């Protein structure tokens, strides 16, 4: 079937034919349809009953091409099936933090889901200096539940292996393999360097051996370590928040991969927000430090909260099921020691992935608004250099940075040290 | 279809109906059929033309149960499909070291393949003190080719990911997860301890934290690191040899797993042969040292030969394809450094897996003949304790044992040190 984007009227009529959605939205003739997609990939619509604005949904549709470019850049619509499957799975595990799916149509490659009308994108909130008191608790809960329940620590081996096969998502994984783990370290035409970024900083990404080796290790882990069902693109633009609630959206990159990749994405984006605060926080002569400290505190609370909840889920499940991953242990000393060891290894992975994610946001084609929005080229470049220095340290020292507090200390030191590389 | 093992006549008639096999074997009326399977799982037949004994094949058939126990222990016949797929794949990559498949029947769960009439099982040869001058070259070639060509270093990401899904073999993987990585470290009813094995050595497997943690790390890697298509059970009973040729047989445990698992199996079994030589080599008052040194030399040559060929395949492929796993590197210094780093990491994995494999052969239910054949309980226990000490060192020190020569030195030191734990 040739793909045609819906007109407003067609979409309203389509939704009127789906009983569950019609029950939610009311009469198709009353529906306002607004196309709001600003991403590169998909069409996104807000559909609202004009007579009862509380009755609304989001419709997301994946065309069989890269929307930004058009039909000349084909992209499999299968990505919508991955997104729907992941939304349902994560929603079952963590219903408070995942939008509800009302309807999915695998022939039309669309999903109808909960409209988060009173929430905003976390990245925007952080740029404005907003504080979300429940954010760290919510994200650590989301991460602990989604990462634990997809893994061999919970699932029976046959279920886990078939889940991993069903989640193969090579087309979107290939985008990450290229744009996160490969191109940023090359002299690649897709890279975009800001005007004042020193050549030495760019050269260092290409030539510093420990950094190249660490990045390649993370790429190998990304491609091979099928540990759990990941969101796969968990930056602060995939998180919607308000004072009371936190939702994780857009899991179209979902696949079975290394746990640290999702946690690392969150940490990377908090660190990008931290360093870019040196501009955002100074507007009107203010002092950025208080909000920067709040950002680091969130990073620390997210890791520590995630880690504590993950171990708690693990312990509970093993004491209920009487099966222990490492095997029986009469004294439970080895059991406890292994869990601590596992979390240290996971922190190292997390920091390595965070480093790669930060680097791609500085020199790769996909940027983050908190940095591109900085108008002064030199201020921007100084911030970018700090991000790169932090990213390099995370990658190269990932196994020796023993806890998340040390990462916060590292970030503060790099922030204080105004000398650039 | 209810499974019934073939009678000799039925099998001859069946083979006569397969044109390719009939062309090979000749008239069904001339065929001698001998059931020779001594394994726990399958039926194995030698089928030979009585008038022309050079015309012969092996037939292997997987009943839908554990043959050793019978229909009360069901086991999926799918394992034969995994074995056939792996034989074909490995045969294409390494035709000199994999028996030819003449015919496979997925309804009857059988395969007809090359009869290695002048070869013997390597484990038997090593017990007799035979030396195979080409063994190390052949095994390093087999390992380098099979492990490299299934990995992301060669395959396109979509092909690799679909190959990994197609190779899911959870039922046989579960056997390994339990028998190699879990039960040996527990007080498990399936374990079998030799009469004089000191209780302290058994306790140490259960309580020594660094050992338990290392074994759990290897289990996690086995279950999660889908690096390449493995043989999955590459001990010296899966290798057939003569002076000139080496064949790897029985890949029914094949799945996408960590490369070090196959290399580690070879090394573990050479080390078991090395330590057990202290009895086999002393029969009739002889000195075991010369043959023990030959065994260590094979271990060193297999690792070093494998490593050199693997890196060579990697380099050749990247220079032909112009695509480099770590990304472009103008100076190729990082490229070379990463390859060395990759092989050090692979050696660490290899030694960790070798350690687990050695331990399961000492205390688990599946033993090796070179040790069970030792009649003197105290001599046997001394050898077993050395095997366990070596295995523990391989596991716990796997990341610091920097090259295979250090492993040989370690083995010699443990052999010399007659004091037990």
What would you note in describing this structure?
Chains A, B: It comes from Caballeronia novacaledonica. Chains A, B: This is S-methyl-5-thioribose kinase. Chains A, B: InterPro entries: Aminoglycoside_PTrfase (IPR002575), Kinase-like_dom_sf (IPR011009), Methylthioribose_kinase (IPR009212). The structure is a homodimer of 421-residue chains. In chain A, strand 4 (65-66) and strand 5 (70-74) form a beta hairpin. Helix content of chain A is 52%, strand content 13%. Chain A folds into two domains: 8-114, Phosphorylase Kinase, domain 1 (2-Layer Sandwich), CATH 3.30.200; 120-416, Aminoglycoside 3'-phosphotransferase, Chain: A, domain 2, CATH 3.90.1200.10. In chain A, the strands form four sheets. A five-stranded antiparallel beta sheet of chain A has the order 1-2-3-7-6, with helices on both faces. The first copy, chain A, has helices at 8-16, 19-25, 78-93, 122-127, 135-149, 157-166, 170-179, 199-207, 209-224, 260-280, 289-321, 333-363, 369-372, 377-396, 404-416, and strands at residues 31-35, 43-49, 52-61, 65-66, 70-74, 101-105, 110-114, 120-121, 228-230, 239-241, 246-248, 255-257. Chains A and B meet through helix 6, helix 7, helix 9 and helix 12 of A and helix 6, helix 7, helix 9 and helix 12 of B.
